[in-house]
Amino acid sequence: MTPVRVLAVASEVYPIVKTGGLADVAGAxxxxxxxHGVEMRTLMPxxxxxxxxxxxxxxxxxxxxxxxxxxxxLAGSHDGLDLFVxxxxxxxxxxxxxxVTAEGVDWPDNGLRFAALSRVAADIGxxxxxxxVPDVVHAxxxxxxxxxxxxxxxxxxRPGTVMTIHNMAYQGKFDRALTxxxxxxPDASFDVHGLEYFGGISFLKAGLQLADxxxxxxxxxxxxxxxxxxxxxLGGLLRERANVLSGILNGIDIEVWNPQTDPHIAYRFGAQDxxxxxxxxxxxxxxxxLDSSDEAPLLGxxxxxxxxxGLDLLLEAIPTILDQGMQLALLGSGDRDxxxxxxxxxxxxxxxxGVMIGYDEILAHLIQAGSDAxxxxxxxxxxxxxxxxALRYGAVPIVSRVGGLEDTIVDSGEAGQNATGFKFxxxxxxxxxxxxxxxxxxxHDKPTWRRLQLSGLATDVSWRNRAGxxxxxxxxxxxxxxx
Length: 483
Ligand code: ADP
Ligand code: GLC
Known about the structure:
- With 483 residues, this protein is an alpha/beta fold.
- It folds into two domains: 4-251 and 464-482, 3-Layer(aba) Sandwich (Rossmann fold), CATH 3.40.50.2000; 275-457, 3-Layer(aba) Sandwich (Rossmann fold).
- The protein is built from 21 helices and 18 strands.
- A nine-stranded mixed beta sheet has the order 3-4-5-2-1-6-7-11-12, with helices on both faces. It has a six-stranded parallel beta sheet with strand order 15-14-13-16-17-18, sandwiched between helices. Strands 8-10-9 form a three-stranded antiparallel beta sheet.
- α5 packs across α8 (203-210).
- The protein is globular.
- The two termini are 18 Å apart.
- The structure holds adenosine-5'-diphosphate (ADP) and alpha-D-glucopyranose.
């Protein structure tokens, strides 16, 4: 196995900073890649939580003026992850969510903040750190999208580049005037084959246009984003670059998500003793103020509350949940309007609908361990991770037929013995409600339900093989650049 060195660039990394699945992927992939001969180091911004956890990191570079203020590059490690941290206090030393203010609006200097991250990624690519000169720079999402662009416009020998799309909906769009301020050649880069995007610039578009390879997080999403609708403005570009675009499914960290050892759940269990799930269900019902009943199917949701996730359709399906005798436990945060509507639904249906607004890792584990089914009714879903955790915890996924949900769940109607859940399409409230009714009938047929759970538990949701696909991609990229 040829050893490969890869610099990953990500704006969030679990367990240090997380707002969604990107962090899970950025945190788990480097560790899984070790077995495939890939040495990965990850570059991330020095947010306050990062600086706290990496207080012993080594300073390897210092700049008196980095994008408008003093900056440093640090190298350190945390929880098995080897990290480079870009410590630029005037850009990153802000509490709370990494992208938005306390009022929920994007920081006005996000363009500068994430250009700075990509600039240093490109410099590491050029050999800034003698002890770690990467063969490949792997950029995740728009925040890292300029790394392939800087490497391209710098015009010197450079490593291979990979751009991974975790979500087409976030494209990093800014005014064209920014190009000069961030040190890109304003004329050359403001071009349809560069950063230009509908009269402005887009960091994601830059990465998609200029990286050697493009990946996204499921094969179905890789197809969907080549359409005008799924591409959200970038479908044409992706159709043109289809020969370098592929979909590699996400895995989950099966140590963090292991019902046999999970410290966050009330009762641990495995395939042999699934009956212990009832005890977790009872605790979950208590925590969400739901009636205690083992017979009522308990539906769980763990999600960002955004248009993507289709949770307005679930609100419309509440009458079905009620007349089918089901219960709902929802944990989520995001869109204010959805938060209010869910809280109102919980107030109107005590004992039946339970809602917790917020972000709570521990409760997320308990929902996986105690709910009978996990709902993911997304309008689009690049991969989705909660349905993978659900498979591992015996919560039967009920999902829409899109993106990674299509690729990771086997519908009960399709494959008898191997079915792991329920899929519905089109993504409408009616189709969702009728699938909930079907799932309710299956729940009351105990052998059927048990078979679904056991097939889920037997599904490989780990990173082992999926990391191998990234390793093969890095190696093929190196070979094509040599040849
Ligand atoms: P996305 O990245 O689009 O939000 P994913 O399903 O890929 O969706 O990943 C979401 C991750 O965030 C999962 O690990 C999930 O458990 C976690 N998560 C989402 N919302 C919450 C919440 N309110 N509390 C705790 N964990 C959450
Ligand atoms: C994004 C997507 C989600 C995916 C995650 C990790 O946030 O919305 O589907 O699982 O990234 O790749």
